[in-house]
Amino acid sequence: MVIANIIAYIILIIGGLNWGLVGIFNFNLVTTIFGVLPSIATTIVYVLVAISAVWLIFSPLMTGGVLYLFDKSSSKSDE
């Protein structure tokens, strides 16, 4: 679950930065990379951002309110 949280977090940051660029500069990086016409690639990117957001909403609910970004066994609080 830690790996999924990290991947979702990174995808969500990239999506947020893209929407920031759209809002501030009217520049859509995803469209620039994959082309102006709606394509399957742009749809996949936007769906991945949405899935990442949903995952990061529900992940803490499944783990008792904690979003794990590091392995629980590697914490040094036990020493």
Characterization of the model:
There is one protein chain. The chain has 3 helices and no strands. The mean pLDDT is 86. The protein is mainly α and 79 residues long. It has one domain. It is 67% helix and 0% strand.
Helix content: 55-70%
Secondary-structure-based class equals: mainly alpha
Spans of at least 5 consecutive residues whose pLDDT stays below 50 are none
Q: Please tell me what the overall shape is.
A: elongated
Supply Rg: 16 Å
Q: Overall mean pLDDT score?
A: 86
Largest sheet: none
Number of strands: 0
Quick summary:
With 79 residues, the chain is mainly alpha-helical. The protein contains three helices and no strands. The longest helix is centred in the first third of the chain and has 24 residues, at 2-25.
Topology:
Blueprint: H1 2-25, H2 29-34, H3 40-62
Which features would summarize this protein structure in a list?
79 residues; mainly alpha
